[in-house]
């Protein structure tokens, strides 16, 4: 099975767990008998005291699919339009593409609409750290990320280079600490992860590039009408369910939720990003550049974070508090101004920071003001018909806890699993997709992500404060907890 999994290119739902990755354990005979006896006594004593509660079966990992919910297959399942709703996914970022792949494996019919003309239509160069999603990724048919890099060491310095904190596998193993067995983080370029997912969709022609959603309308028959702009043409189509996976400035969200209820919230800082090639630059020599180390350096106001981007490149992320107006101006001025700004602010910081900034090609630099939104209440969704949101469209958060893409992947998996479970063997058309699927999905998603939005927001403050300089061997965001 393990070998088959490593070479598999196509997947289908695991029949043992119905794609859920978990199965109910049988209730032990002893427990059953105990309950039956207690119930008999209760009924024979005029129902005095508390009524015995039937024993619950616990969930356990499905051994047939190793908890992934999918198994290797010769072909993808044929889309089952009889049992499942027809889904329109708006946005081909990490969340939208992940949902499409999870639907593909389950035979759920879908079309993915992306406004960009092609995969590489614009620069989308930054790296992601996969935390929970590093485990969840196998549920998308990816056993091992081709370009993924595992970090084994995380170091925090002050600007003189003094180590203020250090953790990670390398330190735990050296000290024989139990934590050495803990889950590891995977670093991957956003585009590499997106590509690995998109490749599964290739032969299905399921991605409609150059389709910008302009309008959507819930119809009386509970379907949704969608209007797209393709070059100068307008195209209209219909779907049973629309999923807005169209990012922090989501068009779908604008149609269904009043912007005033949770407007974009500026987090008082800018983040500037760059990707620096390491091989060509022979002056760049430092144990921090071993492609397995993540390091950050801070002065209590400004913060530099560097992580492996690929085996030959490092990604840096520099951030500091600034007014929204100045952040927008600097961002508009472009990469030359951004590079100068970072260079001037860090030129006296410890090695190899300024060499890395100088060695970063201008075209690899971008910068944005940081925003999130107040978390939505799931009741708000109940009135919006056959439309839902996931990823940044639903719960944008600051990048300082590295959780946005992780949560978008978990959202996608959760939605596909709920659609499969609640539609395959039940008639969702009777109650409608909102009652059958969406209310449950949104409740789970919003409960899971609320704390991530909050922690990511707090991290935006902590990382640009004196707190970051406290000497402790743990992630800075955890210091106050
Ligand atoms: C600097 C930085 C570092 C980060 N680091 C991490 C990290 O380490 N770990 C982590 O988990 N997350 C990280 N994140 C967050 C993560 O990148 C996002 O949360 C994640 O990419 C969101 O995915 P998404 O699919 O919801 O949205 P997006 O990736 O924004 O995708 C939205 C897609 O929708 C398309 N679209 C928009 N409007 C329309 C329309 N009208 N019609 C059709 N298509 C449309 C867009 O073109 C885009 O392709 C980071 C973010 C930044 C900025």
TrEMBL record:
Domain FAD-binding: from-to ranges: 87-420
A family per Pfam: FAD_binding_3
Entries under Gene3D superfamilies matching the protein: FAD/NAD(P)-binding domain
Key words, A-Z: FAD, Flavoprotein, Monooxygenase, Oxidoreductase
Molecular function GO terms recorded: FAD binding; monooxygenase activity
Highest taxon above the source species: Bacteria
InterPro entries: FAD-bd, FAD/NAD-bd_sf
Protein name stated in the entry: 2-polyprenyl-6-methoxyphenol hydroxylase
Species this protein is from: Halpernia humi
Organism taxonomic ancestry: Bacteria, Pseudomonadati, Bacteroidota, Flavobacteriia, Flavobacteriales
């Amino acid at each position: 099975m393990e070998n088959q999994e490593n070479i598999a290119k196509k997947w289908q739902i695991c029949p043992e767990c119905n794609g859920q990755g978990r199965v109910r354990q049988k209730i032990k005979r002893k427990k059953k008998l105990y309950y039956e006896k207690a119930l008999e006594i209760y009924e024979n004593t005029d129902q005095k005291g508390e009524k015995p509660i039937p024993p619950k079966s616990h969930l356990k990992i499905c051994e047939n699919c190793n908890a992934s919910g999918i198994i290797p297959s010769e072909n993808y399942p044929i889309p089952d339009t009889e049992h499942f709703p027809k889904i329109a996914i708006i946005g081909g970022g990490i969340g939208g593409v992940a949902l499409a792949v999870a639907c593909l494996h389950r035979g759920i019919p879908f079309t993915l609409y992306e406004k960009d003309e092609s995969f590489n239509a614009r620069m989308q160069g930054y790296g992601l750290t996969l935390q929970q999603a590093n485990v969840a990724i196998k549920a998308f048919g990816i056993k091992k990320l081709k370009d993924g890099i595992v970090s084994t060491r995380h170091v925090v310095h002050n600007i003189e280079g003094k180590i203020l904190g250090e953790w990670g596998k390398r330190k735990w193993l050296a000290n024989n600490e139990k934590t050495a067995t803990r889950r590891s983080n995977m670093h991957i370029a956003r585009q590499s992860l997106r590509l690995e997912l998109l490749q599964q969709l290739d032969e299905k022609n399921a991605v409609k590039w150059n389709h910008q959603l302009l309008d959507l309308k819930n119809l009386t028959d509970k379907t949704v009408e969608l209007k797209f702009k393709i070059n100068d043409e307008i195209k209209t189509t219909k779907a049973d369910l629309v999923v807005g996976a169209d990012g922090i400035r989501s068009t779908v969200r604008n149609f269904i939720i009043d912007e005033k209820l949770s407007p974009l919230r500026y987090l008082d800082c800018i983040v500037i990003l760059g990707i620096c090639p390491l091989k060509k630059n022979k002056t760049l020599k430092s144990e921090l550049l071993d492609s397995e180390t993540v390091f950050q350096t801070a002065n209590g106001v400004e913060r530099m974070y560097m992580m492996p981007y690929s085996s030959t490149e490092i990604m840096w992320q520099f951030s500091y508090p600034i007014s929204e107006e100045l952040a927008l101006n600097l961002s508009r001025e472009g990469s030359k101004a951004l590079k100068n700004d970072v260079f001037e602010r860090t030129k006296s910081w410890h090695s190899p920071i300024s060499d890395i900034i100088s060695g970063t090609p201008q075209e690899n630099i971008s910068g944005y003001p940081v925003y999130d939104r107040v978390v939505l209440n799931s009741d708000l969704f109940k009135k919006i018909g056959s439309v839902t949101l996931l990823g940044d469209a639903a719960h944008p958060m600051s990048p300082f806890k590295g959780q946005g893409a992780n949560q978008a992947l978990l959202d996608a998996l959760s939605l596909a699993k709920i659609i499969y479970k609640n539609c395959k063997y039940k008639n969702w058309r009777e109650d409608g997709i909102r009652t059958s699927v969406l209310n449950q999905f949104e409740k789970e998603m919003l409960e899971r992500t609320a704390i991530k939005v909050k922690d990511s927001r707090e991290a935006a403050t902590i990382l640009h404060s004196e707190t970051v300089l406290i000497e402790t061997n743990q992630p800075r965001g955890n210091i106050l907890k």
